[in-house]
Design goal:
Shape: globular
Strand order of the largest sheet: 4-3-5-1-6-7-2-8
Radius of gyration: 23 Å
Oligomer: single chain
Structural class: alpha/beta
Helix content: 25-40%
């Protein structure tokens, strides 16, 4: 047998280990307030060739759901694998809202678990969770969240860094969130929001913008076809296409560095589009999100997966891909004992740490086994938990949904439904609100949208637009009671404090 010098043997071993590590890179791309308005989801006008290409070469989930339709709360779920009521981030983190996850969530934190698994961790764009020590990334980059092309370029150095470690990049756009002023060129009294677009038809730096004609945009089932709605949707679609340009640039960077076939890309949004009937509601328009996964090692490509998945599944799935998930305990292989971690850190108040017993495993589970398999189920049912958006917007709702039925429990139903400030002011809503309480709004009237019953029960497989509430229909009384029990069971499983209301009422 030919013998090699020890140096070359060691060098060979190091190279092998490093090349293996380099094959496990992850880019998690999350947008801000986006419904499945993409060409790959059958949208008739959306120009999104980059995301479409990922779907054609990966797995597209047709039934992917956020667990809450509020930005901070949803992102805390994404980065912890826990429902927001359990991790403590009930609502917004910024400004005077000040919701924050429990300190003991640190044991399950996605960026920390990826770092423990040997990853370089980087974050660019919208953060919107707290505390930072719990959701800590090693490297933070600055760029305009309204320009995903610029964000991709700012990420280039991190992606292509010569290192013996793989990378995990959390890439969070601010598009297509509302904001940036009104379109003053509109001829309408109620001006549409710009959705991050430049005024006067200008383009963001380095971006080939796609402009949409209001006459061409499709109207989602939860909106009303009005000129105001069409103008706002045209701006929304422009913002969505700008995101796609950023995806395209990321793909170019990966291919130039010979990393495209060594990197898993996940594309999703924190919740549905920022229109009344979407964002901050637990209707399909609020919870249903795009979800595309391109795993370069999956043999089956261009697969549409119809199984139910949820945002609680993201963290365990990414850890699974990284080889860092303890499948038996459903938590990171390298476990950070919170009591030990915080023992010598007196600046952390004990009462803010959260119950360790309830923060010892993920609520979600890895969807890695169902990638590339169109017929394989993931969850039989999904649970959603929404309590706050802004601090002024208290309206707890709980949901249980399977392939047949969907039950919504409006816990605070005696209260009028409170609006997120930007949705209340939206021209698409105000145009109908200013007409009358009887004016149509999606599948409801304005009055029905604001004043909701305690229970909403839908035959979701036959009524995907949630047009007919069956809660008062005697024909479905038995099914309703059965789904109430399912909801209670999920609340118990996920340690929902609002389960107590079943007992005292």
């Amino acid at each position: 047998m030919k013998k090699f010098p020890a140096f070359y043997l060691v060098l060979s071993m190091v190279y092998s280990a490093n090349s293996f590590a380099a094959e496990k890179n992850v880019i998690f791309f999350i947008t801000d307030d986006q419904s499945p308005t993409l060409g790959c989801y059958g949208d008739p006008v959306a120009q999104t060739p980059a995301v479409d290409s990922l779907a054609a070469d990966g797995t597209l989930f047709t039934h992917a759901f956020a667990t809450t339709a509020s930005c901070s709360a949803s992102r805390s779920v994404v980065m912890s694998g826990l429902h927001n009521h359990a991790n403590g981030q009930y609502g917004h983190q910024h400004a005077f809202h000040k919701f924050s996850s429990y300190y003991n969530v640190i044991s399950l934190s996605l960026p920390r678990a990826m770092a423990e698994a040997g990853y370089r961790t980087g974050h660019i764009g919208k953060y919107h969770v707290a505390p930072e020590e719990v959701f800590h990334f090693e490297t933070y980059f600055r760029a305009s969240g309204r320009n995903a092309v610029q964000m991709a370029e700012r990420s280039r150095e991190f992606i292509t860094e010569k290192s013996d470690k793989p990378f995990f990049l959390y890439f969070a756009t601010s598009d297509p969130h509302r904001g940036g002023g009104k379109d003053k060129n509109s001829q309408r009294t109620l001006k549409p929001d710009l959705f991050g677009n430049k005024p006067d038809g200008e383009s963001h730096d380095g971006v080939e913008e796609v402009f949409y004609n209001p006459k061409d945009v499709p109207i989602p089932h939860f909106l009303t076809d009005t000129p105001e709605t069409r103008e706002e949707l045209a701006h929304y679609y422009q913002s969505v296409s700008r995101i796609d340009r950023g995806v395209a640039r990321l793909i170019e960077i990966l291919k130039e560095a010979n990393l495209y076939e060594k990197t898993m890309i996940v594309f999703t949004s924190d919740h549905g589009m920022a229109f009344a009937g979407g964002k901050t509601t637990v209707y399909e328009g609020g919870l249903k999100v795009p979800f595309v996964v391109r795993n370069p090692y999956e043999k089956n490509r261009g697969v549409k997966q119809s199984g139910l998945i949820s945002h609680i599944d993201i963290t365990p799935s990414l850890l699974d891909f990284a080889g860092a998930l303890d499948h038996e305990k459903n938590r990171p292989k390298i476990w950070t004992t919170p009591e030990k971690y915080w023992k010598d850190k007196p600046y952390v108040a004990k009462e803010n740490r959260g119950s360790s017993s309830k923060l010892s495993a993920y609520h979600g589970k890895s969807w890695l086994p169902v990638l590339g398999n169109s017929g394989k189920k993931h969850w039989n049912e999904v649970f959603a938990s929404h309590t706050f958006h802004e601090i002024q917007m208290y309206y707890p709702m709980r949901v249980i949904r399977d392939a047949q039925y969907k039950l919504i429990w409006n816990i605070a139903h005696p209260l009028p439904y409170p609006f997120a400030s930007d949705l209340w002011a939206a021209s698409s809503f105000q145009a109908q609100y200013q007409k009358s309480m009887s004016a149509p709004y999606g599948q409801k009237t304005v009055r029905e949208y604001i004043h909701r019953p305690e229970f909403e029960f839908f035959k979701i497989d036959q009524d995907p637009h949630e047009a007919s509430n069956l809660a008062g229909n005697s024909k479905y009384a038995d099914q309703l009671e059965r789904y109430k029990e399912k909801l209670k069971s999920a609340q118990s499983q996920f340690h929902d404090p609002w389960i107590m209301k079943w007992k005292y009422e």
